[in-house]
Amino acid sequence: MNPSRDLCNRAPVAQKVVSLYQELYAIEQEIAWSDHETRARLRQERAASVFDQITDICRSTQQSVEPASLLGKAIAYFLRHEAGLRTYLTDGRIEIDNNAVERAIRKIALVRKNSQFAGSEMAADVWMLFASLVATCEVNDIDPRRYLFWLCFKASQSKVDNIPFGELLPWHFAEAEARGDRDHLKFMDFVSGHTGPRYRDVKPGRSEDPIDT
């Protein structure tokens, strides 16, 4: 059986599923700025039934579709991951897809060939760790440069002060920045070597550079 022809012959099924997915994304767009509890509640009220329709269509269609066809593979993939995909309906912290992650790692993917020359497996692990931290900073609108300076200082003190690893993550640095503690800001300006604009005022890609002292 020709997979492309099979998919065309069963286009109404595919079109129905696509239209249902569009409904799910329309709901997500409406509730995007709601808190986690509200998102979970509205998903249960509005999106769960739509998701169930997709599941029912896939299950009822699977037996009459050639497994090797494009439609058959798509249905098998959905049903194989249904439990995981359904998780977003009950947890408002989870997005409907992983597009945000894909965008975050795009820059890493672009330099994948360069990472092959890290020098050793340990060096590659370190590269991966710092790449993850920088990506987390960017997603949370945190200046990666200032954070890494702060991290290096805090890490050097962690054994003495018994600082838990979790307290060295970017959002804890963001909390310190938001508090505007004078000693913290003075220290950060000293170790980062500038007193110029903060990351939230000068975003990557703009011509303004921090002022060196």
Automatic annotation (TrEMBL):
<dbReference type="InterPro" id="IPR004291">
    <property type="entry name" value="Transposase_IS66_central"/>
</dbReference>
<dbReference type="Pfam" id="PF03050">
    <property type="entry name" value="DDE_Tnp_IS66"/>
</dbReference>
<feature type="domain" description="Transposase IS66 central">
    <location>
        <begin position="11"/>
        <end position="124"/>
    </location>
</feature>
<dbReference type="InterPro" id="IPR052344">
    <property type="entry name" value="Transposase-related"/>
</dbReference>
<protein>
    <submittedName>
        <fullName>Transposase</fullName>
    </submittedName>
</protein>
